[in-house]
Amino acid sequence: MIDSDGYRPNVGIVICNKYGQVLWAKRFGQNSWQFPQGGINEGENIETAMYRELFEEVGLTKKDVRLIWASKYWLKYKLPRRLVRENSGNHPVCIGQKQRWFLLQLISDESHINLKTTKTPEFDGWRWVSFWYPVRQVVSFKRDVYRRVMKEFAAILLNEPFMQPAVMVKETPVEVISSPSSDKKAVYKFPYKKRKGKVKFKRR
């Protein structure tokens, strides 16, 4: 479903854990990372679309998460020209995405995360990263949307004690000490902690 301006309606999902970290997922077969997101079907409620995408992409259900906040406005990004598909038949050209974003807290065990709920998985790996890390690490054409989303969510999370230390550090990314591309442990420096935390890269 593409609107008259060429944008595909879409939901984006930020999932945080009790340590103030957010779930960062690796796109299947690529060295590209992002938050879970997906298109809204025609006639589908936005929140319904979010829970559907949540299960399809990371295997979580409504009972696994707590809905903290939903963005009130559409945020848009344009696709680079090389990614815009030519018009075929009567289908309009999609030039980008317009998104509504949701902030969730994982309340069940992380073992419930499953990247293989569909025949064509969106992701083939995931890890927890510090709150602001995705803003600078996401592909460039999504960066402005990510910055605006995380700033909006940071204001909300100041009222959540478990997230306060994470959002107080303004746009400081996690420093990756070792590569998370293998099954070995990757060590990260979290700016709001004095000690190093070991984070295991998850393959599903």
What does this structure look like?
The chain has 204 residues and is an alpha+beta fold. The chain has one domain: Nucleoside Triphosphate Pyrophosphohydrolase. It is built from 4 helices and 11 strands. It has helices spanning 46-58, 133-137, 143-157, 164-168; strands spanning 7-16, 21-27, 33-34, 37-39, 65-70, 75-78, 96-106, 123-130, 175-176, 185-189, 197-200. The strands form 3 sheets. Strands 1, 4, 5, 6 and 7 form a 5-stranded mixed beta sheet that branches. It has a 3-stranded antiparallel beta sheet with strand order 3-2-8. The protein has a 3-stranded antiparallel beta sheet with strand order 9-10-11, with no helix packed on it. Strand 2 and strand 3 form a beta hairpin. The two termini are 30 Å apart. Mean pLDDT is 83; it is low at 171-201. Belongs to the Nudix hydrolase family. RppH subfamily. InterPro entries: Nudix_hydrolase, NUDIX_hydrolase-like_dom_sf, NUDIX_hydrolase_CS, NUDIX_hydrolase_dom, RppH. Keywords: Hydrolase. It is an enzyme of class 3 (hydrolase). Its EC number is 3.6.1.-.
Strand content: 25-35%
Annotated CATH architecture: Alpha-Beta Complex
Rg for CA atoms: 17 Å
Q: Outline, from the CA principal axes?
A: globular
For this structure, the CATH topology is Nucleoside Triphosphate Pyrophosphohydrolase
Task: List the domain count as a whole number.
Answer: 1
Tally of individual helices: 4
CATH class wording: Alpha Beta
**Topology as a string of helices (H) and strands (E):** EEEEHEEEEHHHEEE
Report the sheet with the most strands, covering strand number, pairing sense and barrel closure.
Answer: 5 strands, mixed
The secondary-structure class comes to: alpha+beta
Q: Low-confidence spans: pLDDT under 50, at least 5 residues?
A: 171-201
**Number of distinct beta strands:** 11
CATH superfamily: Nucleoside Triphosphate Pyrophosphohydrolase
Mean pLDDT: 83
- State the share of residues found in helices, binned by percent: 10-25%
The separation of the N and C termini measures: 30 Å
